[in-house]
Amino acid sequence: xxxxxxxxxxxxxxxEMIYISEKGExxxxxxxxxxxxxxxxxxxxxxxxxxxxxxLVNILxxxxxxxxxxxx
Length: 72
Known about the structure:
Structural class: mainly beta
Strand content: over 45%
Oligomer: single chain
Mean pLDDT: 93
CATH architecture: Roll
């Protein structure tokens, strides 16, 4: 996971992330990773349109942004 996040910092690629908050709320977000630190990442959350800090231990899943094909 950490290598994917570091690659996203260098490439500017947006990622899709599933995250659980301290309150136990699960959310799916589109993020642009700005910096990877010990135990956390700083990212722009496209879903919330805000800069956020996310704890690595609370990231349930992260991957390349999927492209959805819309039907006719």
